[in-house]
Each structure stands twice: as structure tokens, then as C-alpha cells.
Amino acid sequence: MFKTLMSNFLRDESGATAIEYGLIVALVSVAAIVALTTLGGSLNNIFSLISSTLSTAAAAGKA
What we know:
mainly alpha, Flp_Fap
């Protein structure tokens, strides 16, 4: 009885699928965080450039 129970337990792979899906979700999340962090820095630089360009144009328009 115990031997059969342990044998069935060791052959059961249903939990492995859930763990694999969890690992995939974790990796996708990490990749998304890294991509958004990198993109965020680039967007900050772009908006700073646009802001300074508009400030310069506004100052030139007032003169």
C-alpha cells in the first residue's frame, strides 16, 4: 500500500506544470521591468530635450 502510494506520488507530474508556468511568468515579469526601466530613462531624456527646445523657442518668440 505505502509502496504503491509513493510510486504514484513520484510519477505524478501535475505540479511540475504549475511550477513551469510560474517560472515563465516570473521571467516575463523581470524582462518587462527591465525593458520599461530602460525605456523610461530614454523617455525622460527625450522629454527633457523637447522641454528645453520649447523653452528656447518660447524665449525667442518673446524677443
